[in-house]
Specification:
Elements lengths: L25 E5 L5 E5 L4 H10 L7 E4 L5 H12 L3 E4 L6 E4 L8 H5 L12 H8 L1 E5 L12 H9 L3 E5 L2 E5 L8 E3 L5 H11 L5 E5 L5 H13 L2 E5 L3 E5 L8 E3 L4 H14 L2 E5 L7 H10 L1 E6 L2 E6 L7 E3 L11 H8 L4 E7 L9 H6 L3 E5 L17 E7 L7 E3 L3 H13 L3 E5 L11 H7 L3 E4 L2
Helix pairs in contact: 1-2, 1-7, 4-6, 5-6, 6-7, 8-10, 8-12, 10-12
The structure holds uridine-diphosphate-2(N-acetylglucosaminyl) butyric acid (EPU).
The site of uridine-diphosphate-2(N-acetylglucosaminyl) butyric acid has 27 residues, from helix 1, helix 5, helix 6 and helix 12.
Length: 460
Amino acid sequence: MNTLLGGAGATTSSPGRSMPDQLGETLAIRGGRPLSGRVEVKGAKNLATKAMVAALLGHGTSVLRDVPEISDVNVVRSLLEVHGVTVTEGDEAGSLVFDPSGAVSAHFEEIDAHAGASRIPILFCGPLLHLLGQAFIPDLGGCRIGDRPINFHLDALRHFGAVVEKLPSGIRLSAPDGLRGADISLPYPSVGATEQVLLTAVRAKGVTELRNAAIEPEIMDLIAVLQKMGAIISYEPNRVILIEGVDHLEGYDHRCIFDRNEAASWACAALATDGDIFVGGAKQQEMLTFLNVFRKVGGAFDVREDGIRFRRGGTLKPVVVETDVHPGFMTDWQQPLIVALTQADGESIVHETVYENRFGFTQALNKMGADIVVHPHGLDRGPRRVPRRELEQAAVINGPTPLHGAEIVVPDLRGGYSHVIAALAAQGESLVSNVGIIQRGYEKLFSKLDVLGADFDVVR
Ligand code: EPU
């Protein structure tokens, strides 16, 4: 217990063995042991990478603190560098300093080298158009969890006056007459498209009104970053955001909001393995919806000043959950939750309403002994909070089913983390391959697992 709530053992670096921070490709995991101890979560992937792009808009240097050491951050750093932004380590651990004074158009080959690596490059459009009058965006990457179109982004940019040219290798944009404020109504409160509008509107001429905006805490944190830079952004009722464009923005000094996706992942790991995990840096406000579901499933948590402790409060119970935009239950939380639901007593249903293909990871869970049936076109059962979306799917999980070791391949970031947790909850040994992908969003995963008492080796 002492190691849970502080003290010498309460760090994410193990005194026992030295863990490479770079993930290998395959892990041999011997499961059946509860994960217990303390891990720290740093800045949110889904804010840090956007705040890094915002640095392009400033006239001075920007400092971002609590930046997670993940590969998505490396991709954005490298893209900023090919555009002439100098990126250096700051005065405190985990901080980065951005100096955009030498920003230039990058060579096609340099940008293209980042094709397929991440979805963040699409957010460079607005800042580059303001700075250089043109932008080239390579083919995007990110997790394969659906079509992931960018039509909302491109439509919004056209509203600002950008000319969009689709090429076989990517998208070229120009703004011969500069960008001007626009009235934009998103067909769906997309996180990325809302960020696109914010990053473009802050320097556009005139006022932008964005309706049906996403209001995730990471977006509010991005608004805080932009306000520090000199932007004028107000948040109105009913998902409306008003942005008054300004001529000049300065740099910022900002500490990233914590990664609530990672915090929820560790919480589910405690449930699935019957462990006891204190997540340093986790905060209650941004996790209210998650915590309600966690409690309904039979989890217990204690909120403290420096983090939240998660464990089982008794037998796990089935739940019906619908993923949704904020303040709903995040689509990034359902994967580790489903691992825990395989151990709940009865039938759970998870409706995925955000992405059309985010249950691929359940095949591996079934291989390990779970009983999960995916309904590719959704289920109409029960009263719903979220109006049914055309693209939605549902997973019906019948538990409890003991899990056993298996050979499994990680399909995507959140699914991959869930595979690792399932292998840790399962009896026997699992071989989990393609784990490198998890490094896109989980910092120091090996060290953290080690601290929590996981029994595993990197085999290749
Ligand atoms: N959509 C469109 N057209 C668009 C943009 C989105 O149809 O132009 C659709 C998507 O296909 C999807 C829905 O709108 O069905 C929601 O997509 P959204 O734009 O909100 O997601 P995103 O910005 O691409 C971010 C996070 C995701 C997270 C979602 C939802 C980043 C880099 N990614 O994606 O995070 O799941 O918001 O909260 O911020 C992850 O961390 O594992 C991850 C996938």
